[in-house]
Amino acid sequence: MLVFYAKRPGWGHPAHLPLFIVGMPRSGTSLVEQILASHTQIHGGGELPMMLKLTAGLKSDTDIPVSSHAQRIASMKKQEVSLLSERYIDELQSLSKTATHISDKLPGNYFRLGIIFLLFPNATIIHCQRGAMDTCWSCYQQNFESGLRFTNDLENLGHAYRGYQRLMQHWHSIKPGRILDIKYESLLQDPELEARRLLEHCNLDWQPDVLQFHQQQRPVSTASLWQVRQPLYQSSVGKWGAYQRHLQPLKVLLGV
Q1: Which of 50, 68, 105, 167 could cross-link 33 (Cys pair, CB 3.0–4.6 Å)?
Q2: What whole-number percentage of the chain has pLDDT above 70?
Q3: pTM beyond 0.70, yes or no
């Protein structure tokens, strides 16, 4: 994998505009975006579908037979990478003409980090983490509008979480220092310290207004709509414990 990127220096779009916020659903991605979007130089784009559509269309956009997205990405030429990255940047810029960073907080983009690193070598990437059981329990009790059917079964949810962990460990080893991990529990405990880490990772100056994120009136269309309008609270930490006797299959898979 290291060789793959080493053979493609200077590929993709050089812009620093894209800001990807990734992680499992219910891991704090909406909260992190709300904090960042309270900075005057960041526009919160929400859960943008562009990367999902881009990768979904890759296999159908070629005359070369391929068996996987990985094989398709490996076959891409520099010009094609440039065209795809320019298309994405154009769509981002349509959201804001003045922001230096525009966030894309579709959590499942952690699946697409391979092509993200290729298309946007200077993108900012933030990985939201939360306690495994709290994350999975929150997913299980949430009735998502579409997709994410794995969250309806405790065993499927456990396997999905373990796969997510392995994938993020892989990208940390391939691209050390490129991904900032933000822990939900640490953010609740010391919001200013974690907010400063976020802005430092974005190469932006500190603005204390980011701590007043709950006063932001920007549109939020995720299941966390209510939470991001409130000051930080601790009651969601360890909440799964009250239901643990019903969560045995999940506990076994996560080694709790």
Answers
A1: 105
A2: 88
A3: yes
